[in-house]
Design brief:
Strand order of the largest sheet: 3-2-4-1-5-6
Strand content: 5-15%
Radius of gyration: 18 Å
CATH topology: Rossmann fold
Low-confidence stretches: 1-10
Mean pLDDT: 91
CATH superfamily: P-loop containing nucleotide triphosphate hydrolases
Distance between the termini: 39 Å
Structural class: alpha/beta
Number of domains: 1
Largest sheet: 6 strands, parallel
Oligomer: single chain
Order of helices and strands: EHEHEHEHEHEHHH
Number of helices: 8
CATH architecture: 3-Layer(aba) Sandwich
Length: about 230
């Protein structure tokens, strides 16, 4: 080696894997998964999204983006580990898995391979009851996690609607790791995703702040979990 020259050093890239889960359909799971992926991308995190939901909604959403965005591949739960290896080979920093509703085997595989689980639930009795099974799987596998209440009506004068209050009491009783951010029912989320964009890229400040806060929570929770591992 020539004196004074330093050999190139390959910086280690640690892949973090997040499984976004809702066994009950229509919970807003894909909306949350897409916004987390876009939030990471907007902050310079090299992100790969793996769509194992047969509806392929997140693949369609990200495919509609007319500019640079997170990479996305569609596959099955059985091939999820191969997708994770591919993400490592591509030196991705973040892998987000959009899981199918009701497919326990695929969801279980996603949880096993994940570093962090984001469980999405609407503030309804049916959704809260369905969450119990997912929460049990996550706890049994010892995965750090958070529960995101989605599609909630807006609070009026900082007072939550009765159904949201009931849901929060139920989640507290279950000792669910509740996210400090409630994702409200806002049309901008769907409108933005129709063009592959995040609400953070819209003029809706409340929605943008909501998703920015959700990403900040998930990112901080993953960092804290890694430090404790």
């Amino acid at each position: 080696m020539t004196a004074g020259r330093r050999s190139p050093v390959l910086l280690e890239v640690i892949l973090r894997t997040v499984a976004v889960i809702a066994l009950k359909g229509g919970s807003g799971k894909t909306t949350v998964a897409a916004h987390l992926a876009l939030a990471a991308h907007l902050r310079g995190v090299d992100t790969l999204v793996v769509d194992i939901d047969p509806q392929r909604s997140i693949e369609q959403v990200l495919g509609a983006r007319g500019q640079d965005g997170p990479s996305c591949i569609a596959t099955t739960g059985a091939k999820l580990m191969s997708a994770q290896f591919a993400a490592i080979g591509l030196r991705k920093q973040l892998l987000i898995i959009d899981t199918p509703a009701g497919a326990l085997e695929d969801v279980s595989e996603a949880i096993v391979l994940s570093d962090f689980a984001v469980m999405v639930v609407r503030p309804t009795l049916i959704d809260i009851s369905g969450l119990a099974r997912t929460l049990m799987m996550v706890r049994r596998l010892g995965k750090p996690s958070t529960v995101v209440v989605s599609q909630a009506p807006a609070a009026r004068e900082q007072v939550e609607a009765p159904l949201v209050k009931r849901a929060l009491r139920g989640l507290d009783y279950m000792k669910a790791p509740l996210a400090p951010v409630i994702v409200r029912s806002r049309s901008i989320y769907q409108t933005a995703l129709e063009t592959g964009r995040s609400a953070e890229e819209s003029s809706d400040r409340a929605a943008a702040a909501e998703m920015a806060a959700l990403w900040a929570h998930v990112d901080a929770a993953m960092t804290a979990a890694s430090a404790q591992a």
